[in-house]
Amino acid sequence: MTVFHYPQDDINTDLLFPGKYTYTCSTGPEIMEHLLEDLDPTFSGRVQPGDIIITGDNFGCGSSREQPSLGLRHAGIRAVIARSFARIFYRSAINQGLLLVTSPEAVEHYSEGDEVSVDPAAGEVTVGDRKFAFPPLPGEMLEILEDGGLLEHISKRFGRGEE
Known about the structure:
The protein has 8 helices and 7 strands, in the order E-H-H-H-E-H-E-H-E-H-E-E-E-H-H.
């Protein structure tokens, strides 16, 4: 598991997924090819399922495009841990099944090479040898994340309609 550490604030959706690809990339693999290319050109070639991103304040600010959260979920990002998130990105991420954790203390404590784990049900982030609490996610939100996103959750819960 790799921890991608981007300590800066205000990482916007164009840094996560360049807007110039908005109308040409719509599937997970297409999006993943361009994830973070203007912030970290090596990201898409190194990211593996289970990896974690640690970052600063206001992560995901900017436009309401779903490609950034969809791409990070497709890449297998286990969680994004930040000091804070833009509200529109937070909702988009949950809808895509991407776990976001607000924990300024965990972000501040992190040093390169630290092992990081997240327990969303318990509301706990472990960084190195320290544990940090965050409000446990509500049951329905945990179910949405476990089901892989809102559409999958609705489909599982209510079934697919007959046409």
